[in-house]
Amino acid sequence: MSVSDEDVIEGELPKSGVFRVISRHKMLTGIGVLSLVAIAAIGWTQVRPLFAPEYRDIAYQAPSAPKLTAAAGEKIYRIDPTQSQARYEVEETFAGSDPRRTTGTTHGIAGDFALNLSNPQNSRVGRIVVDLEQLHSDDSLRDARLRSAYLESYSFPLAVLSDAQMTGLPPKISEGTQYKFDMQGDLRIKKTTLRPIWAVTAKRNADKLTATATTTIKMSDYKIGPISLAGMLRTGDDVTLTLQMVALDPT
């Protein structure tokens, strides 16, 4: 292949189809590298706080809650954290995969119940406290992201259920019989307090009270989600909260 005088300008060889392809390939490669660097930088800004000691080093011990004093006709039951847990369930999508249910749990739960055996409708629920820093799932990176960017558990370590009222209790409670009723109370997470309704199933056996309370809230209502991690992991807005409680006679 010959090169004409018009094709040679100031000693520069003409750019044939091959040279143009190579040049374009280098440009696209450069853009791709820059894009990857930008994505990595964005991802690192989200992941870096997760390695801070306050979100990595968690003290797993039971929180404290105010203790109730039995009035006439009442029997106190105190939550045993070793047999109890608080749990969340949320739908999660990773890198465009099919959604799946993700669960996180903690044994950091405390609180009292005052059961009125002669008039169950007058029974009381003490303040129930859950340690959010202790929540853990099958992914430690997700847990740290939840603590640092959404729950801000280093500053707001506790979720508190207070002023709870029970409706639908029977006129009499028989030992060993399971009952279903509703409970509504102030649930405070971070700086937000709302009053969700919990569906409760409970049973009493002498000195032991077992109860499971479940409700569904929107994370956006509490300004704790939905969760996103580097654009790869995302959750839905609805989260199911469950309190599985075993309460014992503290005397």
- Evaluate the radius of gyration: 29 Å
Unreliable sequence segments? 1-13, 31-46
How are helices and strands ordered from N to C? HHEEEEEEEHEEEEEEE
Largest sheet: 14 strands, antiparallel
Instruction: Find the structural class using helix and strand composition.
Output: alpha+beta
| DSSP, total strands | 14
Which range best describes the helical content: under 10%, 10-25%, 25-40%, 40-55%, 55-70% or over 70%?
10-25%
Head-to-tail CA distance between termini: 102 Å
Q: What is the count of helical runs? A: 3
Mean pLDDT: 83
**Strand content range:** 35-45%
Shape: elongated
Description:
It contains three helices and 14 strands. The chain is α+β, with helices and mostly antiparallel strands and 251 residues long. Strands 1, 2, 3, 4, 5, 6, 7, 8, 9, 10, 11, 12, 13 and 14 form a 14-stranded antiparallel sheet that branches. The longest helix is centred in the first third of the chain and has 31 residues. It is elongated.
Entry summary:
19% of the residues lie in helices and 39% in strands.
Which properties best describe this structure?
251 residues, alpha+beta, 14-stranded antiparallel beta sheet, 3 helices, 19% helix
SSE blueprint:
Layout: H1 17-47, H2 53-56, E1 74-79, E2 85-94, E3 100-106, E4 109-110, E5 112-116, E6 124-125, E7 128-131, H3 140-151, E8 158-167, E9 178-189, E10 192-194, E11 197-205, E12 208-218, E13 228-229, E14 233-248
